[in-house]
Amino acid sequence: MTWLEASHQWNLFWSQPITRCEVYAYCGPFGICHDSADDGFCECLPGFEAASPNNWNFADGSGGCVRKADLQCGNGTHSNGERGQFHRESNVRLPEYPLTLPTSGAMQCESACLNNCSCSAYSYYMEKCIVWGGDLLNLQQLSDDNSNGQDFYLKLAASELNGKVSSSKWKVWLIVTLAISLTSAFVIWRIRRRLRRKGEDLLLFDLSKSSVDTNYKLSEANEVWRGEKKEVDLPMFSFASVSAATNYFSIENKLGEGGFGPVYKGKSQKGYEIAAKRLSKRSGQGWQELKNEAMLIAKLQHKNLVKLLGCCIEQDEKILIYEYMPNKSLDFFLFDPTKHGILNWKTRVHIIEGVAQGLLYLHQYSRLRIIHRDLKASNILLDKDMNPKISDFGMARIFGGNELKATNHIVGTYGYMSPDYALDGLFSTKSDVFSFGVLLLEILSGKKNTGFYQTDSLNLLGYAWDLWKDSRGQELMDPGLEETLPTHILLRYINVGLLCVQESADDRPTMSDVVSMLGNESVRLPSPKQPAFSNLRSGVEPHISQNRPEICSLNGVTLSVMEAR
């Protein structure tokens, strides 16, 4: 307040709380405060009554509310043998002091609360199961023009919801519901089976619809992972419609060619652009790799991973349909002296951070924990806003925990493979971390790791290490960048890159560590050791061809260099 000398009175210019609902626990336990009510601000939740009716008559709801019918502990049953039920409250500011439970869905979350004696309510929000035990405090019913609230479900005795329904009636209702559901599921299955035979028309496909809403199962692609059969749901397009969308696979629509075969640009009648990857009969990578890519990427959803829209499988034709990336791939800009200026410092940092987030999702947060095994500049696609998207999952593998796997079938691209994988056939998440470190140094310098020669350096990793040892790390910066940026920021990124390309996998950080180090300047970075391959001639790398020119992607989705089998 301020004093107005002219009127000799106080002037109020700010006060808190603005409304009574902003007072903590204004309506007490199990009371809810209505944001838009003119009177009777407090109200008891359904199934509850005022703990002190006399105080409520004087507009004092701080004493809260108590249950009308107590819940009996154990399997969600009430004393009369009826199961407890839940009442939904919508657009509510959730109560204080929640707990989070690990569940796999809304139904499991409901069951967990129902069978927990101390659980009073739950909410399933952002794929998280949130529960409350004991009293519910600080509930607020938001007004219609305020949509920031969430739904939450209050546990009540069965007698408080829909009257007293007997156990026998409840069982009859359950049986009838199950019968109807099974019948409906059978009818839908028959309809989808007919649609599968026909195939969808890609020309009429609407990309604004979720790719999860599908009508085709890659039953041919069923594989056994950890003893369980996994199936992939994808839209199935007819070959005729894919051919028409790509102008009959014309040379003008060809975007590039990789290990799987050519990639073509296509367009639906609704104007949506797609990229069609067609398996070549002469491809060194066959149906197994393409099937592997379809099965993995169809289960992944992240803004930094390329989106698979569907597929076409007719006789000898096998095609994957992806979202189209108008800005092609990272290598198209990064290693072209006439184009790399488009990648200013801000854009490069954005790409680095996006790729790091995509890898972190694959390693830690996706439904399937995945090692990519072929991360490189040509497999980073760029959308119209230069957002990076990791592509080419043909070589990817599923693994569990901190598992270390071995193989005698080395696949990948020379210059991006870790020594433990290239030399010993051992791969883990740290293999992807090594590839990310190479990519990070390439983005900073604008130079390829392979085919890079300085007077005393054998490759980009050795050159970066020599500069780092001599405290000249800033000289690694791409000379094409005109921006003047703080040296400590550039050196921090170089430090992270060198840590990722350490000789020993144990010395490399996890992608979780990398994301933290890139995004938080307060995180102290360890000093790197000499990186892998920095003192070896490329000719000693086993099983990897170094004479074959690297393929430059033109928006290719799978552009792995083919290696000898």
Automatic annotation (TrEMBL):
| Every Protein kinase domain range | 249-533
What SMART domains does the annotation carry? Answer: PAN_AP (SM00473), S_TKc (SM00220)
Instruction: Tell me the CDD domains matching this sequence.
Output: EGF (cd00053), PAN_AP_plant (cd01098), STKc_IRAK (cd14066)
Pfam family for this entry, one:
S_locus_glycop
Please tell me one Gene Ontology term that the record gives under cellular component.
plasma membrane
Q: Which residues form the Apple domain?
A: 73-157
Catalytic activity reported:
L-seryl-[protein] + ATP = O-phospho-L-seryl-[protein] + ADP + H(+); L-threonyl-[protein] + ATP = O-phospho-L-threonyl-[protein] + ADP + H(+)
Keywords on record: ATP-binding, Disulfide bond, EGF-like domain, Kinase, Membrane, Nucleotide-binding, Serine/threonine-protein kinase, Signal, Transferase, Transmembrane, Transmembrane helix
Where does the sequence pass through the membrane? 170-189
- Which GO terms of the molecular function aspect are on file? ATP binding; protein serine/threonine kinase activity
Class in the EC hierarchy, top level = transferase
The record's listing under InterPro entries reads: EGF, Kinase-like_dom_sf, Pan_app, Prot_kinase_dom, S-locus_recpt_kinase_C, S_locus_glycoprot_dom, Ser-Thr/Tyr_kinase_cat_dom, Ser/Thr_kinase_AS
Residue ranges constituting the EGF-like domain according to the UniProt record: 17-54
GO BP: recognition of pollen
Q: What is its EC number?
A: 2.7.11.1
**What is the protein name for this chain?**
non-specific serine/threonine protein kinase
* Native species: Vitis rotundifolia (Muscadine grape)
